[in-house]
Protein: Acyl-CoA dehydrogenase
Organism: Streptomyces capitiformicae
Amino acid sequence: MTITASGAAPSSILEGGHAELVDSFETFIRRELVPLAADMPETEALPPADLRSYVRKRSAALGFYAGEYPEELGGSDMPLTAVVLLHHAAGRSGCALAPYALGGSDGPSPLLRNGTEQQIQRYLVPLVRGEMTRCLALTEPHAGSDAFRLTTVAVRDTDGWVLNGRKTFVSNADRADIALIVTATDLGDDRPTGSTAFVVPMDQPGLRIGQRYEGMSGEPMFELLLDDVRLPPDAVIGGDRGVGAATALAIDSLSRGRLIVAATCNGIAEHAVRLGLEYARSRTAFGERIGTYQHIQEHLVSSHAEVESSKLLTLASAQLLDLGREAPENAALAKLTASETAVRAVDRALQIHGATGWVRGHPLEFLYRHVRMMTIIEGTSEVQKVIVAKAMGLH
Ligand SMILES: Cc1cc2nc3c(=O)[nH]c(=O)nc-3n(C[C@H](O)[C@H](O)[C@H](O)COP(=O)(O)OP(=O)(O)OC[C@H]3O[C@@H](n4cnc5c(N)ncnc54)[C@H](O)[C@@H]3O)c2cc1C
């Protein structure tokens, strides 16, 4: 953060090792993505599919997209700390195309890292190269936070599996090449079963998109209907060891996902602080720049303090994970703090702009709607608090 006049912000001490990488990513955003996004209003949540596809592939060719994946799969073998810093930089850039330069909820999935060799080559490699996109179908009308109380069920039959049920709020279902679908498992005997994750081509007979939901900031989500979807045995992610084991396969990716969302939120919050600061320095009221008024300073200093604290928490949690010492409650705490911080920072920056920030088309008007999803996705704030409370012995 370059807000302080007196020197580096405290969090920069944890960023140092990857300064060159972040620099080159920011140069890529500035030189290539900003001009491409120039014709696209910042209020447009979803860039056209061909533009997103170009950005993915170009970023993959430069080694940014899916950087955390091994080189033999097309990634750059980056530690999580580096990945987190790139997501932060994308959020901070304010460029509508920057988030698409990094693998997100439509990109390579850690679930597939636990796939069979065939699944890795057939699906994960093209996802890492940005040549394919996917969606994840986990949530159901009656199973959201309680994500493994599923009623969509996979029944084992002689040829493989038959899936029936209904998924909801699935992002990218209209563009994805494949769906990762998590179901309850019925083995046809009395054995205890868990949930199973399947990889399913979107044109698989029996699988279709139902209702389309329009998110507050224009991101669509979809219902997925499964009506006797017949799959071969090798559609189970992880093969035989994946049967009834989706939770185990997903568990080590939860902290990573949460830290990436936290980093994006920190970036958005920093961007909001910068917009607020620029306005506070230029706008006058009652004959003075509004930044000289303590009420405005209160907004900006509070946000700055919260963003810096949140960045430290996210970066420290990422570094612990890179050292193999991350505990799930750290990522939960980081995601909770960052998402709540971003919502507040955007709200305060809009307040500083008065009516100007509230007008449709202003970057803050868009961010205000966009950032609101962050306390819901990748586990709601309440769910993060449940995880932290448990770690504190409160259960
Ligand atoms: C933008 C966006 C994109 C999404 N994309 C996808 C996707 O691609 N694929 C997918 O499968 N899903 C997706 N979802 C769904 C998302 O995963 C769920 O919304 C989320 O898991 C919360 O579930 P829910 O909405 O059913 O809320 P619920 O679980 O019903 O929760 C309702 C309220 O109760 C609280 N609550 C629940 N349990 C507890 C508890 N134990 N203690 C205290 N409070 C609790 C929650 O925090 C929340 O405030 C997306 C959602 C959004 C907003």
About this structure: DSSP finds eleven helices and nine strands in the chain. The chain has a mean pLDDT of 94.
